[in-house]
Sequence to fold (511 residues):
Amino acid sequence: MQADMHRRTSALDSTAAYRARRPGPVLRILPAPTMWLRRYARAVVITDLAVVLAALLLAQSIRFGFGIDGLLVGVGRFGFPGIVTVLAVAVLWTVALVTAQAHDRRVLGAGTAEYTRVLRAGFGAAGAVAAINLVAETWISRGFLLFGFGIGVPALMLSRWLWRQCIVAERKRGRCLNRVLVLGDTASSVPLIRRLAARPELGYQVAAICVPAHSAAAATAQLEVDGTQIPVLGDFGDARAAVARCGAAVVAVTSGDALGPDAMRELSWDLEGLDVEMLVAPAVIDVSGPRITMRPESGLALLHIDKPRYRGANRFLKSAFDRTFAALLLVLIAPVLIACALAVKIGSPGPVLYGGERIGLDNRPFRMWKFRSMVVGADRQKAALAGTDDGNGILFKMRDDPRVTATGRYLRRFSLDELPQLFNVLSGSMSLVGPRPPLREEVDRYDEHVTRRMLVRPGITGLWQVSGRSDLTWEESVRLDLSYVENWSVALDIVILCRTVRAMLNRSGAY
Fold:
C-alpha cells in the first residue's frame, strides 16, 4: 500500500515538474538519422517496384516466349497485350504492399515484421488476382501467375534482406543510427541501454537520459553503463529541451508510471511538434509481434496481449511447412547424407546413426537421430567426465570432449551430424525451427517457467542455434527458447532458417 502511494506521489511530482519547467518553442533541424531513414525508405520502395516488374516480365517471357513477341502476344479474354497484364498485376501488387504497410519506416531494417508484411502482401495480391480472374473470367494464364508470384515473393524477400545487410553493416560502423533520449529511472533504463548497445543492427544509439527529479542519478552529470558514459540531461521536466540538446530522433520512455499519465500525454504533444518519434517500453519481456495490440477503452490506451499462437490452425500450418521443406531438403542433400554416412562408417567402428532419447511436445519422449560423432558407448562415459563440464547450468558441454571421433569433430563443426533429424521432422516428432530438444534428466530439473519450452515441438535449429549455440549461458538459452515459443510466426521461422546457414558456415559455438 505504501509503495503504491509512493508511486502515485512520484508521478504527481513528475507531472508538476514537467509542467512547471516546460520550455517554449524550440527551433530544431531534423537530425541526420531522420534524413537517412527517408532516403532508405525511398530506395526500398524503388527496389520493390523494380523487383515486382522484373518478376512479372520474366514470368510473361517464360510462359509466352522471350523477346518483344512474348510481351505483345494477346492474352486473356479481352486479348490485351501481355505487357498490359504485367503492368496491371504490378499495380495491384504495389497496392497490396502499401496496404500491408510493408514500407512503414518503423519496421524497415529490423525485426521479422517487415518480412511478414511482404509475405502477406504477396499472398494477398495473388489471391486478389485469382479472384478477379475467376469472377471476371479474364482468363489470365495460370502459368503466368504461378511463375510471377513464385519468383516475385522470394525475390522481394531477398531484396529486403540484401538492403538490411547493407544497413546493418553501416550501423555496425556507427552510421545510420537514430539517436535516442531515454526517460526513466536507472532500474528500467539500464537494461534497455544495454540491449540497444548490444544490438547495433536495430539502429538505435542512446545519446542521453533524463531521470526522476528525486533520484540519486539526478545529481550526477553522467550515468555509466558497462563502461560507457551516458549524459544525464536533467529530470523529466527537462525532456523537451534535452531533445534539442542531444539531437535525438527518438524518445524512449521506460518509466511511464513514474512520469505519470498527464505528463506522458503532454510530452507526446510536445514531441509531435519536433518531429520526434516516441517509444514506450512496456513491462512485458520477450512478447512482441502480432500478439501485442493497443485497445482504447474509455479514453485509456490499454496494451492487449493475445495468447501464444501455437495451437489449432497455426500448429497445422507449421507442421505442413516443416514437412514440405524437410522433404525437399532431403531430396536436395541426398549426396551429402551419403557422403557423411560413408565418412562415419570408415572413420570409426560402430553404427552410422545414433538414436538418443529426447523429450518433445507435451513432455512425450521420442528418439532423435544424428550421425554418430562419438565413440560407441559414449553415454556410459558421461559420469566420469562430469568434473570437466564446460556447459552452462543444466546443460552438459565440453569443448574438447575426448569421446568425439575425428570424423565427428568435423561433422559437428559444420552441424552436419544433425542432418538426419530431417527424418524426425517428417515423422512429426520435431520441427525445423524450435527450442533445443532436451534430455530427460534436463527436463526433470526444469523450473516451472522453463517447462513452457515443451509447448511446441523441439527444432533442428532455433534462436539458440543462430545466437551463439554452445557459447550461450543457460539463462540466455532459456530466454531465447521462451521468446520463440511466445512469438512464433512463419516469417520468424524463415528468418531463423536463413540465419542458420550463416551460423553453420561461421562455426562459432559448435562443439
